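Ticket #489: bound-state structure for UAG.
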Amino acid sequence: MKLNILLEHVDKAVNSHLLDIDVDIKGIATNSSLVRPNDIFVAIPGYRVDGHQFIDAAIQAGASVVVGEKDLKDLIVPYVRVINSRLALAQIACQFYGNPSRNKIVIGITGTNGKTTTTYMLKYILESCGRSCSLFGTVQNVVNGKTLPSVNTTPDALELQKQIALSEDEFIIMEVSSHGLSQYRVEGVEFDYCLFTNLDKEHLDYHRDMEAYFSVKASLFDQLKPNGLAIINHMDNWGKRLADLLTSKGYQIFLVGDKSYHDLQIVHFKSGVSTVSLKGNQSFELSLNILGKHNILNASMAFLTALLIGIPQQKVVYALEKFPGVPGRFEMLQHPNGATVVIDYAHTADAFYQCLQTAREEGANRVFHVFGFRGDRDKEKRRDMVSVSKEISDVHILTLDDLNDVPYEEMEQALYALSDGGYVISDRTIAIKEVLEHAHKGDWVCITGKGAEDYQQKFRLPTASDKETVQFLFQKIDEATNGGFEPLH
Ligand SMILES: CC(=O)N[C@H]1[C@@H](OP(=O)(O)OP(=O)(O)OC[C@H]2O[C@@H](n3ccc(=O)[nH]c3=O)[C@H](O)[C@@H]2O)O[C@H](CO)[C@@H](O)[C@@H]1O[C@H](C)C(=O)N[C@@H](C)C(=O)N[C@H](CCC(=O)O)C(=O)O
Ligand SMILES: Nc1ncnc2c1ncn2[C@@H]1O[C@H](COP(=O)(O)OP(=O)(O)OP(=O)(O)O)[C@@H](O)[C@H]1O
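RESOLUTION: The complex was predicted; output attached.
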């Protein structure tokens, strides 16, 4: 593509005369090691390193044009200075791949919790009706039925535009994170449906405060196509704010909630099976294989969206009944002694509440809760998480989550400082072992924070995830002759 066409929609600072240069651009790169001859290299001042440092390497690798934010002179190739490199990248990628989101039905889901679950539910409903979907999210990306690894919840603009262009699927369903929005990863994507699940204290190491976090999330809705629809959880206070904001802007909004004026009303809110009704219609049952009122809410959001897309109600009900769940989201395993083990991805206070309260409402005798905190991530939410755990569970055990380069001892100290009457067992696998040893029939063990993700560091047991650890320990119980655990060596 000719440079002048490629840069047509880029907010440029200076050197715009270079747009006239008759250069043919073959591709786009943001990493110097991935540059190929005749690529345009976009230098991004990153959080770890400054991409401008790699301009020479990019040129050596064949970049024929460089885009950046700095005032640079004397480059041997044309240099386009822009106000924001990430924004320019999105605008360039969008143009290069021909605005691919315009040819798709695009669904974006934002909010602190429930994005992954809701995307999975929607994908399942649509695919059950023979419609094809690409998916972008925390657990995996899927395009044309092929699974691709997921580096970020929301991929960077270059990867996202490329994958949407490659997609032959009818729908694009994506989780839109606040980082993704603030880093312009979805800039240029035009959405048919945008969903808001909820907002809870999270990522305040990145956003100034909750107001700033909310504003970023709300900005997704400005990317709706002219006839695009917003679907909002109106039981969440931030959802109420968003609904007011979008109404004042003239957007078409649909609300999920527990009041008769909601477009989808959850009339009788119960984990597993709930009664819901559509405005002005008879109520009916919505049943799910996964427990938790929060999952009923996620299902209701998916339900309303599917109806707006035009899927018949009965087909949606049927698909949700069969929905197999999401790896590591309230995934239940049965302890040989009759206790119940739940592996969940809860890592905010609200998610703790949902997970632990579900165990309580299911009649748990005692609730054991094993959890930790990500190193080098939002510290503000930690105390709230501990207090919810302390309030709802009978025993809370603090353990290590991903260290993210924080020294082991430092994180261990943080656990002791926060434990508030709970136990600290630093080795995650040993914490799980201790709890499984102490849990009896009728007790529930909730292990939260990692979900289906692999461990980032080695722990004492030879396992790579919470599920593997639990299954490894169950196996040991089965093998042991005395009905207890084999000693560990
Ligand atoms: C803090 C943060 O958001 N970082 C994101 C950011 O990376 P960065 O700014 O650190 O990049 P960098 O490593 O400093 O590199 C800067 C530039 O130099 C280039 N470079 C670098 C080295 C080299 O040799 N040559 C070279 O050209 C790099 O390609 C890059 O363009 O831009 C990258 C590309 O978009 C992201 O992958 C990366 O996400 C990292 C992996 C991350 O962990 N992000 C988290 C915080 C995040 O975004 N999370 C949300 C979900 C949150 C949630 O809801 O739970 C998400 O959407 O994933
Ligand atoms: N609607 C909801 N309200 C509150 N908590 C929820 C809701 N849905 C899920 N959760 C909790 O949040 C955890 C993460 O759920 P899910 O992966 O669906 O959310 P997410 O928004 O994709 O999270 P992340 O952005 O961190 O990947 C679940 O394991 C559960 O504990």
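RESOLUTION NOTES: Residues 331-480 form a domain with the Protein-Tyrosine Phosphatase; Chain A fold (CATH 3.90.190.20).
TICKET STATUS: resolved
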